[in-house]
Every structure is written in C-alpha cells, then in structure tokens.
Amino acid sequence: MKLEELIKKNKEKFTQTDLAIADFLMDNKNDELDLSINELAKKCLTSRTSILRFTQKIGFGGYSEFKYFLKQKDHTKKDQTKEDDKKLNQILESLDKSNNIFIYGNGDFEDIIKKSIKSYLKDLGKLSETFQGRDEISTFNKNSLKDSTIFIIDLSDDPNTLELLSLISNLNTKKILITDTYSKSFLGNYTIHIKKLEKNKINSIAKNLEEIEKFFVKYQEYRMKNESK
C-alpha cells in the first residue's frame, strides 16, 4: 500500500500535528527521505514522540519500520508515475469537454491565483467565471454545474469551501483543488499542491504559480496531441 493510501485510510484519527506531518511527507514524497526520527521531527516542527505516534496510527510498529517502508517505495516510483499520468489525463479530458468552467476562491492570495487560472484558460480559448464568498456560492445554478469543471482554491481554511463541496457532491462536476495542505487533497478529483504559505512572511507568488502553470502546459500539450489525431 502506498503512503498516500495509508494516510487517507487513517486520516480520521489524525490530530492537527498528524496532519502537519502528513503534509510534510506528501510535499516531499518524490524525495528520498533518509531522516532519523529526530531530523523528521525537526522538519515538521514537532517532537519525536509525535512522529512515533503518527507512524503507529498509520499501521507501523515504530519509526524504523516506517523508515524501511519509505525506502522501499522507490521501487514503485515508475508505477506511481504511470498512475499519476493516467489521473492527470482523465482530468484534462474532463476539463476539455466541460460545458462550463468555474473558479472559486476567497482571499487575497486566492484572488491572484483565480486571475492567473482565468488568464491561462482564456489563452487556450476556454471561458470561465470566478466566484468568492458565501453570497456568490448561493448563486450557483445546479444545472450549469452539471458536466462542468470547478477550480477550488483554498489556502486559508475558508469554511465556505466545504459548503461549496457539499453543494456539488452529487453532481457530475469535476473538482480541481488547489491547496497548500495535504489534509484537503481528498476533497477533489485532482489536486494541485502548492507550497505552504507562511504567516508573517513574504510568500513568493511566482513559485506558488509554477505548479499551476505546469498544469496548464500539460493541458495545452493534451489539446495539441488530440488535435493532431
């Protein structure tokens, strides 16, 4: 079983500290994490006891067993890459076939990302609408949401995000979630993970937009490939 699956399976047991550890591990899942328990605790800004409890919650007898598991995951990287590519192609196909595209986000940083997404879509000949806040969520028309794609940007624990997800949960709407925390990743059909924002510090907008730009470059390549068939 993959680390992501273990976390998903046990996430209901997690404390905020556990979620922070999960975020760090998933943010660095493509790196070789050959860290001691003390080093990992320092990276996650927590204690070695919290790391040990986390590994036990996801099914390991201790940190040594968990560390061995992390080393073994390198053998499955090729399979994971194929799986990720398949998931990406599925969401790109849905995006390309969508009748409507919506972009939701509530906050200053979210506004910057919304404008960027709208611009990327426009460059590729796709129109979209942007929304924010509770009042604008209430204006969503369920008929227009059918067979649509919605980008949901949540970097500030916006309570309205869960309300929106609840509203569209039973609709044939593809959800592309843009977030800086792993704990929200399971809420969408596809997640674009960006660097965690730091409070009281200058956060690089350019770096955080890189992952979003990569997604749209992939979308452009997907369209060019299918147009040439």
Automatic annotation (TrEMBL):
Gene3D superfamilies: Glucose-6-phosphate isomerase like protein, domain 1, Winged helix-like DNA-binding domain superfamily/Winged helix DNA-binding domain. One of its GO terms (molecular function) is DNA-binding transcription factor activity. Residues 1-77 form the HTH rpiR-type domain. InterPro entries: Homeodomain-like_sf, HTH_RpiR, RpiR-like, WH-like_DNA-bd_sf. Pfam families: HTH_6. This is RpiR family transcriptional regulator. It comes from Anaerococcus hydrogenalis. The lineage of its organism: Bacteria, Bacillati, Bacillota, Tissierellia, Tissierellales.
